[in-house]
Amino acid sequence: MRKYEIDNETILRIGAELGIDGIGVTTAEPFHDVHEHLVMYRESGHESGFEHDVLEERVDPKAFFPEAKSIVAIAMAYRTEKYVGQKKPEGLRGQMSVYAWGMDYHKVLKGKLELLAARLEQELGRPVAVHNSVDTGPLVDRAVAQRAGIGWVGKNCSLITETHGSWVFLGQLVCDVDIEPSVPTPLPQCEDCPDLCLKACPTKALVSPFQTDSSKCLSYITQMKGLIPEEYRAKLGRRLWGCDTCQVVCPKNKEVAFGTAIEFDPEPEYAFPDLMHLLTLSNKQFRREFGESAAAWRGAKVMQRNAIIALGNMREQAAVPKLLEMLERDERPEIRGTIAWALQKIDPDGTREKVAQAYAREPEEEIKQEMAWAVDGAE
Ligand code: B12
Ligand code: SF4
Ligand code: SF4
To answer: What are the residue boundaries of the 4Fe-4S ferredoxin-type domain, all occurrences included (predicted)?
Structure first.
């Protein structure tokens, strides 16, 4: 039998000791089968722009880390017991995707990967060369997790684990240690589910099983810069960041275990931010209040634009004075344009005159178009 530097059982034991919810190992061999998915994804124009650019590095760990021998993949569950019965606090509230209800997962998982690297060194009694990544690395995290036996990829594209469903974040440690690999999870296991995720997706972003067109996915739309295309604004509802629909409807996510990492316990002001308060924040204040959340990286402007859309969708009359004040003074074109849209939804008759005045002084053509509804004969 082949001799490894560390056996698989030892890795599973270390994972359990470190409070890691899912752990597995795969070799550093290339992910040949993933290459065709990535090419198709790119050629169909379905990329979001958040993907690592170099395809060769996405499918071959040795292309960016030549000493690579094994990859230890980890999964951390983000729905803790405290998610049950989380109630919206008082006030006008938007909603974050559950993955942003606790602390930023990048920091939490990187912390686990650092502890893991230290434990490998302890086991071997020698320094270990590692490259660790969570989300922002070159590899396709879901493909790595599947080959490392952590779970399988569903038609909604999510990596689904047996214990915690798809409510898990993924990360990996590429290292120069020869570790016994786990058995890959067989693909896929949607069985006789009647494509509930594809049917429930509000924008038909799941264009076919296992394929997301990012430009239609509300998760991407909440993170994009600039004006949100009008066809998606009503579909956002109260969503401020991310979208959970294709996971909520998935039967494989029912009756799964809760995670135990207290870092992911929900913070009510992250889960359901106060919309009117959000509108008052400077970029610095926003970073102070939301900086520990995974939803902060795009800054205040994107979140405020989303909050204005939520207020428009809620037809919230109480928001009108603040929106009018911002329409007059705000220096950010996408904020002025989005406000004009929201005011039309909330109170077109009562705000027409003010929006027409804004139209007259608006320098940007694209933003003027958002205000044109208030002006007779405007094109
Ligand atoms: C870009 C990106 C996005 C984009 C594009 C998503 C997408 N589906 O590709 C946008 C902004 C839309 C997005 C949204 C979300 N994301 Co994101 N995202 C990424 C990122 C950075 C790259 C993904 C990528 O490379 N996509 C390209 C395609 C080809 O890859 P993939 O979907 O990962 O591909 C797998 C399957 O689709 C499958 N496949 C593809 N074609 C086919 C065909 C067949 C026949 C078969 C069998 C399989 C198959 O093969 C791939 C690997 O096995 C990863 C982190 C990373 N570095 O991997 C996080 C990541 C995928 N995102 C994550 C999360 C949590 C989300 C959201 C749930 C967040 C939310 N609640 O709003 C949504 C889910 C939306 C969705 N439908 O996927 C997690 C997923 C965790 C999990 N359990 O799966 C990741 C892994 C981040 C992390 N480290 O935790 N995301
Ligand atoms: S995250 Fe939302 S918009 Fe994106 S594919 Fe899933 S259900 Fe559709
Ligand atoms: S909802 Fe159904 S088809 Fe979609 S991922 Fe879950 S089991 Fe698969």
So the answer is: 179-211
| Residue of 197, 198, 253 to mutate, ligand 3, most atoms within 8 A of C-beta | 197
- Model pLDDT, residue 149: 98
Q: How far is the CA of 153 from the centre of ligand 3 (A)?
A: 9
DSSP structure class, residue 97: -
Of the candidates 53, 60, 135, 192, the residue annotated as catalytic is 135
Please give the number of the atom of ligand 3 that sits closest to the Cα of 195: 3
Q: Of 175, 190, 210, at which residue does a domain stop?
A: 175
**pTM (whole model) above 0.90:** yes
Residues 279 and 145 occupy one common structural domain: no
| Between 71 and 189, residue with greater pLDDT | 71
Taking the C-alpha atoms of residue 361 and residue 375, their distance in angstroms, rounded to an integer, is 13
Q: What local confidence, expressed as pLDDT, does residue 379 receive?
A: 53
Asked whether residue 187 carries a pLDDT value surpassing 90, the answer given is no
Q: 377: pLDDT confidence band, cut at 50, 70 and 90?
A: low
What average pLDDT does this structure show over 301-313?
A: 98
- Same domain for 141 and 31, yes or no, is yes
Tell me which residue range forms the domain holding 332. 274-379
Please confirm, yes or no, whether 135 is among the known catalytic residues.
yes
* pLDDT value for 91: 87
Pocket of ligand 2 (CB under 6 A): 201-203, 205-206, 212, 217-219, 243, 245-246
Note the pLDDT of residue 357.
98
| Distance in angstroms (rounded) separating the CA atoms of residues 102 and 26 | 29
Closest CA to 233 of 336, 334, 309, 346: 309
Q: How far is the CA of 291 from the centre of ligand 2 (A)?
A: 25
Judge whether 31 lies within some domain.
Answer: yes
Distances (CA, A) of 27 to 11, 18, 71, 169, 369: 14, 22, 6, 21, 54
Which residues share a beta bridge with 25?
72
